Amino acid sequence: MSSEGLFFDPTQVKMVVESLSNEKDLPPELIFVAMENALAAVLAKSLAEDACVRVEIDRNTGTYQCQRVWQVVDATDEALELRPEQVLSEEQAQARDFNASVGEEVLELIEFEPGRIFAHQAGQMMVKFVREAERAKLAEHFKHRIGELLTGQVKRVTRENIIIDLGDQIEANLSRKEILPREIFRVGDRARGYLYAVEPENKGPLLMLSRVHLNMLIELFKLEVPEIQEGVLEIKSVARDPGVRAKIAVKTKDTRVDAVGACVGMRGSRVQVVSNELANERIDIILWDENPAKMVISAMAPAEVISVVVDEQAQSMDVIVAEDELSQAIGRGGQNVRLASQLVGWTLNVMSEVQRDEAAGLPAVTELCQALDVDETLAAILVREGFESLDVLAQAETSKLATIEEFDEALAAEILARAQSAMVSEAIALSELSDVSQPDETLVALPNMPKLVAHRLAAEGVITANDLAEKSVDEIVHIKGVNERLAADLIMAARAPWFKNGQD
Q1: Residues above pLDDT 70, as percent of the chain
Q2: Model-level pTM?
C-alpha cells in the first residue's frame, strides 16, 4: 500500500490501523493517535515552524479533518511577538472572521493538496510515533518486573555495552560497568542479569541489567534455595566485592532448619552454583544475629575474634584478633574487614592483641589524671614506671618516685601527697556507698576496674559483670570517674565470655 493510500484514502485507514495493531500488538486507538500526530507534525512544518495543528480522524469512516489552532490574547500580550504563529489578538481574529474573545481558542480549517514528499514524511513520522508507543508499552510491562533476573542471548557487543536479546524482539542493555571483572561476552553467549531500571528515554534498549548489583546475589540464592522462596529462610544482609568475594547473613524462621546449611547445600552444591554464575565469586554465609557484636564474630571469618569493644554512639567496634591472624582478618586490600563492616552496618577497627595491650594502659592513665588532677603526659610516665593504680602509687615512697628521670623531690612529694589524699577521699566515698549496694566479685575482678567505680556502678543497679555487659557506653559514662574510654574497656572485659562461647 502506498504512503498516499495510508494517509489520504479514507477507505484504507481502518484496514491499515487493524493491520498495524495486530502486527505491533498495540491497541487500535494508539495507532489512530500516532497517525493523527504524524499528519499534524508534518503539516505544521509545512505551514510555519511553530504552527499548532490538530488532526482528527473519524474512527468509523477514516475521514480526517485538519485544523490550525490559534489562541486569542490581549493586544498588549508579549506572546504576539514571541509566538506569532500560535496566537492572535482579538482584532486579528475578527479580521479573519473569527468571533472570539481573549482567552478563547479558534480553529482554522486547513485545505491542502498532499504530494508524495508530504506523504513520505508523514509515513516516516508515523513509524516514529508507533515505535514510541511500542517502547512505552514495553516500559509499562517491565517496570513491574524490576528486581527480577532476566536471561537472554548476547546479540551485539560494543565498547561500552553488551546488548542482550531476551526474545520477542526485546533487547536489554548490560553496560561494561555492570559486568564482573575479567568477564568476557561474545555474540551468541547466554547471559543473565538483574533488571535494576527501565529507562524509556534511552535511544537504545530501555531495559538496564546488572551483574554487580547486590540483589543479583540475593536473586540467585532464591533460585537455588527453595527454603528462601518458601519464606522459611530470609537473607537479612549482603556485602559484595563483585566477582571476588561476598558475605551474606541469613536467618531462619523455623528452628528445625539450619539456615547456613540450607544455603550451602549438600557438599556445597547450592552455593557452588551461585558462585559459578558469578565468575567463581567466593561467598561466605553466616548466621544473622540481632546482637551486632556477636554477629561480627561470624562476619570476620575465617579469622577468630578474641574480643570486641563496642561504641554504640559512634556505631563502631574495635575487633581484637590474634597477632598471627591480623592480616587474615583485614584481608587483601582490607577486603575482609570492609565486607564484614558492610554486612553488619558498623565501622570495624581491627587490631591485634599486641596493639590492644599497648593501649591497655590508657584506662590507668585516665584514672590517675582524674584522681591526681594532672595531665596525661605525667600520668603516662607514672604508668610506664609501674604505678598503674592509685593504690600502688599511694603506698610508694617519695625517694622512689624521685628516681624517675622526669621527676625531682618536690614533684615526687606533691604527687605522693595527692595520691594519699585521693585514697582518703575514695575511702570516704566507699563508706558512704557501702549501705546502698555491694558490687559482686565478678564486677570488682574485671581488669582495669577501679574499686570506687565498681561501688558506684553497684549503687545504680549494675551489680555483676553480666549486668555491665548488657550496658552501653552511653549508659555508664555519666558515672563519676568513668569516661568513654574506660567505659568501653570495662564493657569489653565484661563481654569477654560472650566471645569465648561464640568461638566454642
Answers
A1: 85
A2: 0.57
